[in-house]
Design a protein that fits this description.
It holds the Pfam family SspB. By secondary structure, the protein is mostly beta strands. The protein has a domain of about 90 residues: SspB-like (SH3 type barrels, Roll), CATH 2.30.30.220.
Length: about 160
């Protein structure tokens, strides 16, 4: 029997914590052929989705995928995100949450027709320390080569920053 991933359980737990605390849960998703999202809102192969109760309809978070309907530009769209494509779930108001390494191209449901040559080792989510927003950090990390980065914005809503 293969080991069950903890990722969908952690996603549901952080979602519940956000809603119980009055925060707005956001999902950062790596977009590939297996995701169904409005492509006009995808930037650099990623999209951030508001999954709060007020922003979604029919939200279902199971062990393989996250499904719901949401309005984009006033038009209701069906959203499908494989759990393996989720990069992070966090509270928009304070940035607290959990980040994951996306596992693109891997199906979380076993394929009975496919023949596996070697059993794959389960990949567990990795936790890493992130400096708090109140930390006085004077240095900026160098931008990755070939990454079109925009200058940082002053004020406004907090955003998720992935640290590798």
């Amino acid at each position: 029997m293969s080991e069950i991933s903890t990722k969908p359980y952690l996603l549901r737990a952080i979602y519940e914590w956000c809603t119980d605390s009055g925060y707005t849960p956001y999902l950062a998703v790596k977009v590939d052929a297996g995701t169904t999202v409005p492509m006009e809102y995808v930037k650099k192969g990623e999209i951030v989705l508001n999954i709060s109760f007020g922003a979604t309809s029919g939200l279902k978070m199971d062990n393989d995928s996250i499904r719901f309907h949401a309005r984009f530009g006033g038009v209701s769209r069906e959203i499908y995100v494989p759990v393996n494509n989720v990069m992070a779930i966090y509270a928009n108001e304070n940035g607290q949450g959990m980040a994951f390494e996306p596992q693109l191209g891997q199906s979380s449901a076993p394929d009975t027709d496919a023949v596996e040559e070697a059993p794959a080792a389960p990949v567990a989510p990795v936790l890493s320390a992130v400096p708090s927003a109140s930390a006085d950090v004077k240095t900026e990390p160098p931008a990755p080569p070939g990454d079109d980065t925009d200058p940082p914005k002053k004020g406004g809503r907090p955003t998720l920053t992935r640290i590798k």
